[in-house]
């Protein structure tokens, strides 16, 4: 019997379109003999839709047309079953689900929001749970955790939008102590959205206001000299971690931009009036494996595993690193808890192709769910059965 697998993607996020491409690409590579794949699309207005034709990426060119191929739905738990149900006057059960595979990027989805909803229902799912997802999304809190764990990170400061509006001059003085150039980032976004380099105060002020368009929390980091940027994916959970090959970025700019990641070489995601899912990432912008000294390579493998474990990650995550080319000093930049293309391109395809990687992620989720079910989550006795409400009220006013 096939496993009924719900693939959730989209969401109210600036990375919405990247999520669609990643999810459709993953569904194309899932073993159809093993899995009955049920696409579940979250639109930008937060409505949920399902329908087999949502696996065709060309439908997303015009969402009004897409609605004709999909049903509005919701997911709920009933008598030990996880039901995908239609929404409307005549509600109908569309299908049961055995497992969910979230393939979402960014705020309102990847940040633990979706994981929390799935935990509330109780359905097993692939990937990091609420804490790991939240830590992976917030660049400030994750650095605080990594710093406490003695992991190497660059110097930084952070602030909220209201603090900048109220005490701008003082914050600018603190930033200048880092010395220019610095990198300005929205604290909870991904895909290099809203990130800019500032070489002076004028550029810094402009970059901060640009970042504030996307987030109310900003992080400023010291720019690494002679920057070498590398990535390493980690597959696993808290018990074990397996690393991928290391990719070295061919930087066209001082930092890796959104276009470097997803467009590249002037390409667009559309060719011949159809969207090509194999253009999720411009892999021509990477050198895989990276050309690093053995001691640096080994350090990255070790730090990738440590970061994965310290931040409570699970499933697949990509850990991004910054290397100072002058002295080969390695810094952890940030994790990506649901990376674009699920980082399949970082694994040796002769050993672990995309289909095998997806299989392992699903198997890992089932194992984690079974282990979780062995833990105590509630007590059989009902403490409220002996609770005297009147006595409690009297005592509360004493």
In short:
The chain is of the alpha+beta class and 398 residues long. The chain has helices spanning 16-29, 63-66, 113-121, 130-137, 139-148, 161-166, 168-176, 201-212, 258-262, 294-310, 354-373, 389-396, and strands at 3-10, 35-42, 48-50, 71-78, 81-86, 93-97, 99-102, 156-160, 182-186, 196-198, 217-222, 227-236, 241-249, 270-271, 274-275, 286-287, 315-324, 329-336. The protein contains twelve helices and 18 strands.
What does this structure look like?
The protein is α+β, with helices and mostly antiparallel strands and 398 residues long. The protein folds into 3 domains: 3-125, Rossmann fold (3-Layer(aba) Sandwich), CATH 3.40.50; 155-222, Dna Ligase, domain 1 (2-Layer Sandwich), CATH 3.30.1490.20; 225-373, 2-Layer Sandwich (D-amino Acid Aminotransferase, Chain A, domain 1). Helices cover 31% and strands 26% of the residues. It contains 12 helices and 18 strands. It has helices at 16-29, 63-66, 113-121, 130-137, 139-148, 161-166, 168-176, 201-212, 258-262, 294-310, 354-373, 389-396, and strands spanning 3-10, 35-42, 48-50, 71-78, 81-86, 93-97, 99-102, 156-160, 182-186, 196-198, 217-222, 227-236, 241-249, 270-271, 274-275, 286-287, 315-324, 329-336. The strands form 4 sheets. It has a 7-stranded mixed beta sheet with strand order 6-5-4-3-2-1-7, sandwiched between helices. The protein has a 5-stranded antiparallel beta sheet with strand order 16-13-12-17-18. The protein starts with a strand and ends with a helix. Mean pLDDT is 88; it is low at 256-280.
